[in-house]
Amino acid sequence: MYSNRDFNRWRRHPWHGLAAHPEGAAEDVVQVYIEMTPADVVKYELDKASGFLMVDRPQRTTSSPPALYGFIPRTYCAEEVAKRCPHAAEADGDPLDICIYSERHITRADILLNARVVGGIQMIDDGEADDKIVAVLEGDNIWGDVQDITDLPAIKTERLQHYFSTYKMVPGKEIDIRVDFVYGREEALKVIEAAQKDYQNHYGHLHQQDEG
Questions:
Q1: How confident is the model over 151-174, as pLDDT tens digits?
Q2: Half-sphere exposure (Cβ direction) of 29: Cα atoms closer than 13 Å
Q3: Which residues, including other chains, have CB under 8 Å from residue 57's CB and lie 6 or more apart?
């Protein structure tokens, strides 16, 4: 079992070594680790043990994410997140995913940014809750005034729904993915809070050891 000292000895672990919210920020502003950009047609994902970005799989289709894609540090999708999704038996057991819109093209992953939460998509993947929080880059010159997902052009949300409903498609293999329910800022903040509780329940001991 890792201790928090292991994660922080050289470079802070993107999942365990960083905070979910920037210091002094409003409750709807989160810190995000970016795994993928809209130019990526390879699925990149954080290697949970090492903290390095790794190739998960080359995408079978030609689709790429319509927004920056990553996760919120020190979140985990387990029992508390599943409670907020009536049609899911459990959650997917990963950090909470988040998609961020930016007017300027950000062309590299393995970076941190601050984003303001505006809503989310309740994704159910093979019976598991796999929510996708939707946010805008903090201080963005175009999207910076967006307060709720309903303030975004509808096509922005539709493209996210289409991407997540199809990105696991493989010829000859059936998939069971639902992305029908879109929610606003207030529910998104509750999902984030639930994911922080799940993280504390499952991984809080890492930080207790460090403080001790």
A1: 999 999 999 999 999 877 766 777
A2: 13
A3: 42, 43
The Cα 129–Cα 83 span in angstroms is 9
Compute CA distances 199 → 72, 78, 79, 93, whole Å.
11, 8, 10, 10
Cβ-in-10-Å burial (0-12, 13-18, 19+) of 9 comes to exposed
CB atoms near residue 39 (< 10 Å):
12
Nearby residues of 76 by Cβ (< 8 Å), 6 or more positions away: 93, 94, 95, 96, 195, 198, 199, 202, 203
Domain regions of the chain by residue span: 4-211
pLDDT digits (tens, 9 = 90+) for 30-76: 999 999 999 998 889 999 999 999 998 887 777 789 999 999 999 99
Q: How far apart are CA 37 and CA 41, in angstroms?
A: 9
Domain 4-211: give its CATH architecture.
Alpha-Beta Complex (3.90)
According to the model, what pLDDT value does residue 211 have?
Answer: 52
Residue 87 corresponds to which amino acid?
H
- Contact residues for 112 (Cβ-Cβ < 8 A; gap 6+): 14, 18, 31, 32, 33, 34
Reading the block at residue 8, the tokens are: 């922080």
pTM of the model: 0.92
**Residue 200: is its pLDDT beyond 70?**
yes
